[in-house]
Amino acid sequence: MPHPFRATDLPAWADPSVPASSLDPQGASRRTFLRLGMAGGLALATGAHAGTAAAAGGHGDPQLAWLVGDHHIHSRYSHDAKYDFDQLARRGAELGLDWMVFTEHSNFGHRDKGAAAEHEEIMAARARNPRQLIFQGLEWYIPAAEHGTVFTAPGRHEVELLREFERRWDGKLNGWTADLPENEQRAVDALRWLAAQKSSGSVDDVLVLANHPSRLGIDSPHEIRAWRDAASGICIGMEGAPGAQGDADPDWVAYRGSTRAQRGEYNNAPRPDSYPGYPAEAYRTFGGFDWMTATVGGLWDAMLAEGTLFSITSNSDNHRTIWDTWRDGDMPPGESFDSLGWKPSPVDTGTPQPGSDFWPGEFSRTHVGVTRHGYLDVMDGLRRGRVWVDHGHLVDGLDVRLVGARGRSSTLGGRLTVERGTAVELTVKVRSAHRPNPHGVLPRLAHLDVIRGAVTGPATDRDSWQAPDTRVVEQIDTSRRFGTYHLRIPLGRITQSCYIRLRGSDGNRHGAGYLGASIDPAGPVPHDDNNGDPWADTWLYTNPIHIDVR
């Protein structure tokens, strides 16, 4: 159906009418990276729908502009969060976000009143912040499982669809939280229902991502695979790293007197409805990343080894920012969250308040490759898997290509088809960090790890979580590299279908990976309780590129 919004204004760093002298160091660095990627051009076309690349690589592989975003943010329209939209949008813009998704918790008050009132505020926020793409979404209580992000493209029916989805399919509101086969089926049916709404034209697009999948151990491998397979292009991935990354910052722990604090609030143990096949380590983060993603040869790799894409993201899950001084607003007498559908605006106390999160864009970032600037273009980039994520603003820019015979290439999320025995090369362009991050530290990328896995086809055991043929095949020292630099990494002659992904680190904290040093000699590791300084242990991950051998 026709899109109801005009073409969105470009972010300032990509708008050639904005003088380079007026950009902050982060914007200037991003503009330089975009100019280099676009073969000397700067303009990033605007439009509501995905379009033709402004410039192309070999044989149609597009050159991309990378928009930075966060798909998991809560406002005072969630019962356990506190900020106004303008506070979040303003801080996100200051920290370099191009797009953001507000994902309020399902509640009766939100369903009945809050979602509609929130939509009016989102429409106003879009008008006040034309250079930002602001989505309305929902944090879904997945039946028999954890939470998930659900969000739609802006349009006439966006809030109606979210409210109806919440009413029909939310596990908490409908009493479907128990670990029962019928509830697992309801989650699959819910995803198929979303696909039907898109097919009917009720909304232009809708996406789902699984949130903090290892936190409680209740997202079993067969459930995650079932979500992926329920409806093509709807559930496209999961959080590779959860929010709440400030929970175990030692200074914050000392101030508030916490115990057993862990990055991501991953301080749990198995419970009766947890999947029994997960080890105890699965309930901790590794370098701030979820065990499913951080384990080379683990569940994420097991899904990629099936030959299909499943993306990862990173985000703030912002509810309450550490060291922030705002408290919840005062509820009117006789009212509650469910009676209003929201909470009053917060009040500044001047004293740090409880929290475990960072502002959107402050620490966790999801970079999405697009050829045009718009809501549907971000969603298209996410669906195509043109995604890499980083913590602590580890690098300013990254572009990854696999190059085969006659210059044919493919970028993140894509597929490169080659004849058996074809030599393939990985090319990586890196733009190092050019200014201190929000913590006041100039990040340095110490190394990039090349991870390779064999494609073995659909899993015969839907609860399997290991990919035994996946391992780190090369580590490239980047500690002395600065500015914009290029890496060329020969992968040899390809004789079997496989995939390639990258991981990078500041080099501060690592050890043998969970499945052993022969698979991952220098991977992320868990931290002790109360001693997880996120700024001193930062990583980046890319989505894979698959290689199909014929």
TrEMBL record:
<feature type="domain" description="Polymerase/histidinol phosphatase N-terminal">
    <location>
        <begin position="69"/>
        <end position="144"/>
    </location>
</feature>
<protein>
    <submittedName>
        <fullName>PHP domain-containing protein</fullName>
    </submittedName>
</protein>
<dbReference type="InterPro" id="IPR016195">
    <property type="entry name" value="Pol/histidinol_Pase-like"/>
</dbReference>
<dbReference type="Pfam" id="PF02811">
    <property type="entry name" value="PHP"/>
</dbReference>
<dbReference type="InterPro" id="IPR004013">
    <property type="entry name" value="PHP_dom"/>
</dbReference>
<dbReference type="InterPro" id="IPR006311">
    <property type="entry name" value="TAT_signal"/>
</dbReference>
<dbReference type="InterPro" id="IPR003141">
    <property type="entry name" value="Pol/His_phosphatase_N"/>
</dbReference>
